[in-house]
Amino acid sequence: MSGDEIMVMAHNTIVMVFYLSMPLIIAATAVGLIVALIQTLIQLQEQTLAFAAKLTAIVLMLSMSIGWMSSYLMTFFKEVMGKIIGL
C-alpha cells in the first residue's frame, strides 16, 4: 500500500465518521434550538429540560437510522478489509 492509498483511506474514514454523525448532531441542534426558544419565551431557565430533550432526540434518531448506519459501516468495513487482505 502506498502513502497515497493510506491518505485516501484516512480521508474516507473521516468522511464516513462525519456522514454517520450528522443526523444525530442535526437532531440535537434542532431540538436544542427549539427548547431554548421555548424556554426564552416562557422565561424558564432549566438546563435539565434541554439536556433531556436532546438526549431523547438523539435516541430516537439513532433508533430510526441504525439500519442505514450499520449497512453503510459494513460496506466501508468490507472495502477496507478487502484492501488490507490485498496486501
From TrEMBL:
Q: Which UniProt keywords apply?
A: Cell membrane, Cell projection, Cilium, Flagellum, Membrane, Transmembrane, Transmembrane helix
The protein's matches in InterPro entries, at most eight in alphabetical order, are given as:
Bac_export_3
Give compartment(s).
Cell membrane
Q: Which GO terms describe its biological process?
A: protein secretion
Which stretches are transmembrane? 16-37, 49-69
In which broad location class does this protein mainly occur, judging by the first location in its UniProt entry?
Answer: membrane
Q: Which GO terms describe its cellular component?
A: plasma membrane
Q: Provide the membrane topology annotation.
A: Multi-pass membrane protein
Q: Which Pfam family, just one, is annotated for this protein?
A: Bac_export_3
- Judging by the UniProt lineage, the source's domain of life is Bacteria
Q: Does the keyword Transmembrane helix apply?
A: yes
Which PANTHER family does the record match to this protein? FLAGELLAR BIOSYNTHETIC PROTEIN FLIQ, SURFACE PRESENTATION OF ANTIGENS PROTEIN SPAQ
Q: Which family does it belong to?
A: Belongs to the FliQ/MopD/SpaQ family.
> Can you name this protein?
Flagellar biosynthetic protein FliQ
